[in-house]
Write a structure and sequence with these properties.
Largest sheet: none
Shape: globular
Strand content: under 5%
Order of helices and strands: HHHHHHHHHHH
Number of helices: 11
Number of strands: 0
Structural class: mainly alpha
Distance between the termini: 30 Å
Length: about 325
C-alpha cells in the first residue's frame, strides 16, 4: 500500500512539473512569435488552440456546462459583478507580452521578471480586497518578499546593461505581464466561487482572451499595415502553448486540493525557475545566454517567493 509520504512526494513532483510546463509554454510561444515575426498573431494562435481544447472538453463534460450555467445565474442575479467577467482579457494580454519578450530576453529572465511582477501586484490586490473576503493588511514579510523578487530582476540583468542589443523595455514588459496575471488570478478566484468548476472558469478566460487578441490582430491588419504570416509548417511543438495552459489548469485544480496553495506555489515556482534556466542553457532563443548573475537572480527570486509563503505558513 502506498504510504502517505510517497503520495505527497509524487504530488510535489507533479507540482514542480507543472512549473516546468509553464517555462516550456513560454519557450513555445516565444519561438512561434519568432517564426511568425508577429507576436500578436502568435498569441492568438496559442490562445485559440487552448480554446479549441476546452470547447472539446465542454462538449463531453456535463460538469463544465453546469459551471457555465452557474456563472450565468450568478451574473443574472448580481452575485458577481459584470466587470469581473472579462478577466480573460488580462490573460490574452499576458500571452501577447510573453510571445513578444521571450525571443528578446530568453525564458529565464522573463520568468524572473514576471514572478516579481506577480509578487509585487499581490500586495495591491490584497490591499484593495480584489481576491474577495475584504481588504487585507500587508505584512512586513510580504513587502520584504516583493522587494527581494524585484531586486532579483535587477541582479539577473546587471551584466546586460553594456550589451547594445539588450532590451530593458522587454524586462519591464515582463514585469507588467506578471502583474496582469496576478490580477487575473484574483478575479478568477472570485469567478470560480460561482462556476464551482475550474475548467468552466478557464473556458470563459480563453473565450475572452482569444476574442481580445483576435480584435487587436484585426485592428493591426486594418489600420497599422499589419500582416497575416503563414504558419511555420507542421512542427506541433510550436503550437503547444495553449494546450499546456489547459493542462496546467487541470494540474492546479487537482494538486492544490491535496497540497494546499502554499506548497503548490513553492514547488511550481521552483519548477518554473529551474525549467527556464535549463531551457536557456539547452535550447536557448537566438542570442540568449546564461550568466552567473542570472543564476543568482533565479535563486534570489525563489528566496523571495519562500519569504512571502512563510508569512502565510506562520498564520496557520
Amino acid at each position: 500500500m502506498q504510504s502517505e509520504h510517497t503520495k505527497i512526494a509524487r504530488l510535489e513532483a507533479l507540482a514542480a512539473l507543472s512549473g516546468i510546463m509553464i517555462s516550456l509554454q513560454s519557450r513555445a510561444n516565444g519561438e512561434l512569435s519568432h517564426r511568425l515575426d508577429n507576436s500578436i498573431q502568435a498569441a492568438f494562435v496559442s490562445f485559440s488552440s487552448g480554446l479549441l481544447v476546452l470547447i472539446i472538453i465542454a462538449i463531453f463534460s456535463a460538469q463544465v456546462r453546469l459551471g457555465m450555467r452557474n456563472l450565468r445565474a450568478a451574473l443574472a442575479d448580481g452575485r458577481i459583478p459584470w466587470w469581473q467577467i472579462p478577466a480573460g482579457v488580462l490573460g490574452g494580454l499576458f500571452v501577447a507580452l510573453q510571445t513578444h519578450v521571450v525571443p528578446l530576453i530568453g525564458v529565464a529572465i522573463y520568468s524572473v521578471a514576471s514572478i516579481a511582477g506577480q509578487t509585487a501586484i499581490s500586495l495591491f490586490v490584497d490591499r484593495i480586497g480584489l481576491t474577495g473576503g475584504g481588504k487585507k493588511l500587508i505584512s512586513k514579510r510580504r513587502v520584504a518578499a516583493a522587494v527581494v523578487t524585484v531586486t532579483a530582476v535587477f541582479i539577473s540583468v546587471i551584466d546586460k546593461f553594456s550589451v547594445a542589443t539588450f532590451s530593458l523595455i522587454a524586462v519591464f514588459l515582463s514585469l507588467a505581464a506578471g502583474a496582469l496575471v496576478g490580477v487575473q488570478r484574483a478575479l478568477n478566484g472570485q469567478i470560480n466561487e460561482h462556476t464551482k468548476v475550474s475548467f468552466s472558469t478557464s473556458l470563459l478566460n480563453f473565450i475572452m482572451g482569444t476574442t481580445t487578441l483576435g480584435v487587436i490582430w484585426l485592428l493591426g491588419i486594418l489600420f497599422n499595415n499589419g500582416k497575416v504570416s503563414p504558419l511555420p509548417g507542421w512542427n506541433l511543438l510550436l503550437y503547444t502553448g495553449g494546450t499546456i495552459g489547459v493542462i496546467y489548469i487541470a494540474f492546479t485544480a487537482t494538486i492544490v486540493q491535496h497540497l494546499g496553495v502554499l506548497t503548490f506555489t513553492l514547488f511550481s515556482v521552483g519548477g518554473t525557475l529551474i525549467g527556464s534556466l535549463l531551457i536557456d542553457l539547452l535550447i536557448p532563443s537566438h542570442g540568449i545566454g546564461v550568466s552567473w548573475y542570472l543564476v543568482g537572480g533565479i535563486a534570489m527570486t525563489y528566496l523571495g517567493v519562500m519569504i512571502g509563503g512563510q508569512s502565510r505558513l506562520f498564520k496557520r
